[in-house]
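Revision sheet: structure tokens.
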Amino acid sequence: MKKLILFFSLLTAVAVQAQKEKGEAYINTYKEIAIAEMIRSGVPASITLAQGILESQYGESELVKSSNNHFGIKCKTEWTGPKVYHDDDEKGECFRVYATPEESFRDHSDFLKTRPHYAFLFKLDPTDYDGWAKGLKKAGYATLPTYPQRLMKIINDYNLQQYSLEALARIKNPPLTPVIESTAALVKETALEPNKIALDAKDTTAQPSEPIAKAIETETAKQAVLTDSLVKNTAIEPGTVAKKTYPAGVFTINHTKVIYANEGISLLSLANQYDISLSKLIEFNDLPEMDILDTDRLLFIEKKMKKGAGDFHIVTTGETLHDVSQVEGVRLESLAEYNRLSKNATVKPGDKLFLHPIATASVKAPK
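Predicted:
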């Protein structure tokens, strides 16, 4: 009997882990679209991702496979695009078909934004996912009685709130959006003054909604208090360089989860804490084999991105190629490849390191 219980316990653990991996894969695939849609429409990225996971069964539902419909949006009278038929509340119901997942995410945002009975949701604070989850049920988005609770569980299990906060941060400090697709086109078609970069005109007119503006104002005030506290309580000796301050716990760099760990901590204990293997923790951070952390470090708990959020990085005093890889959240092998360097190459203060393939870098580093 004990063996049978152990067997079923192991089966359950395997199933839970497989489901978790499906969720993480879905999030990594679609988080950027959800962030962009929050900036464009005001629908919280956390809600979009949670609904996508729930409605699409981690992107594996028949509706997704046949029509790229991640949110179960039905045809309605105004839909003039392609259609597919599935059994849902009734047999053979009509669902919308999209050419790409991006179209599905965009139509989901527009679906909520343009219908009067969802209008009250956009008056909520965009970080109030509890209010949004319950409001969606109240407005009739889903018939499932436990729909709000299921959405909130997904948001909490996968820390989806971080993507709503990321969207707010980008609204406050929008990233540069290139209008030139290649360096060659930049040279041929555009004459830019030194240290000036062109912005995509279509993105400069967008104005955040009132709740989003208030949320940005609140976050800005919090950061101001934190900065003032750091100035008052931190004594820096003359001639020394202040070490960058990172938040406690999990945060993101270049849309990838990371922590800041102190020298002397056990890497195995960190790996266990964040539910990854020690070998993966070492691999994600391009570290040599070690048991105890040799110095204070940024440690990524998922695989870094191949490309950086910006176009290039200017090396500062004391930085190595590995340091830049960690600070920018870019894989070391990719960083070395873009700059035609070996992974052990020495870099100097002032060096300009590309964070994208050089042939497709959107702008040139200033001379």
